[in-house]
Design a protein that fits this description.
The chain is α+β, with helices and mostly antiparallel strands and 244 residues long. Helices cover 27% and strands 23% of the residues.
């Protein structure tokens, strides 16, 4: 079950115990802490809602999504869905790829999540990328063990073949994108896809000197239905786009 849906259960105090105890829905990070999580909502200047959670040990800031997986946005100037216990002062940070992230710093701990548009896509106004000339899709199950981001021995062989072919083509820049199925929480899947993309990129960079960019897109871009085992397997993948 996605993190945002589990948090929605937390926010509804009367339904908390029922939400936490439903079989098959309690996956991913902090699944054992449902009874202790306290969630508030913050509405950004664009009118989109974000869950802010603090369990006393660490904190989270994540976009509030609707049933269709898109951010819940009331539009600029929309009334906040709720008022947090303390004023939330957020700033925007732009990463090296030109993508923006919402950041909150309490001086004791911090929160950060990608800034998303209304279609659930990262907002990257500073990103300038050449159009890919070719995209190679690799099955994540062949590259990694379940829930892991360490390359398997078989992956080394496959990526070595790819790197050699790239050299023969005279290409040396790629974009590596990680994808997952929908099991576990949205936050967990995002982290796993980030780490898997980084592992593939690190191998290509260290072994062949290939200039790499990485993105993790979690469960947001499925190519098949997550309702079946075959569909979930197809969604667990790493895409390598040749840039030049």
């Amino acid at each position: 079950m996605a993190l945002l849906h589990r948090i929605a259960c937390v926010a509804a105090a009367a339904a908390l115990s029922a939400c936490a105890s439903q079989p098959g829905e309690d996956y991913g990070i902090d699944s054992k802490k449902l009874s202790t999580l306290q969630a508030t909502l913050w509405t950004d200047p664009g009118g989109c809602d974000h869950w802010v959670i603090d369990d006393g040990a660490e904190g989270y800031l994540t976009a509030r999504l609707g049933r269709d997986g898109r951010p819940v946005c009331k539009g600029p100037g929309g009334a906040p869905a709720s008022v947090a216990k303390r004023p939330l002062e957020m700033t925007l940070w732009t990463d090296q790829r030109g993508c923006q992230h919402w950041v909150r710093d309490t001086f004791a701990e911090g929160y950060m999540s990608p800034r998303l548009d209304r279609q659930g896509r990262p907002v990257c106004p500073g990103a300038v990328q050449p159009a890919p000339s070719e995209t190679v899709t690799l099955a994540a199950d062949a590259l990694f063990d379940t829930d892991k981001a360490d390359l398997r021995p078989a992956a080394v062989s496959e990526l070595t073949e790819f790197g050699q072919r790239l050299g023969q083509l005279g290409k040396n820049q790629v974009l590596v994108v990680g994808h997952t199925d929908s099991r576990a929480s949205d936050a967990y899947n995002q982290s796993l896809s980030d780490r898997r993309a980084a592992a593939v990129a690190a191998f290509l960079r260290q072994r062949f000197g290939i200039v790499t960019q990485t993105e993790g897109r979690g469960e947001r871009e499925p190519v098949a239905s997550n309702a079946t085992a075959a569909g979930r397997q197809a969604n667990r993948r790493v895409e390598i786009s040749i840039l030049n």
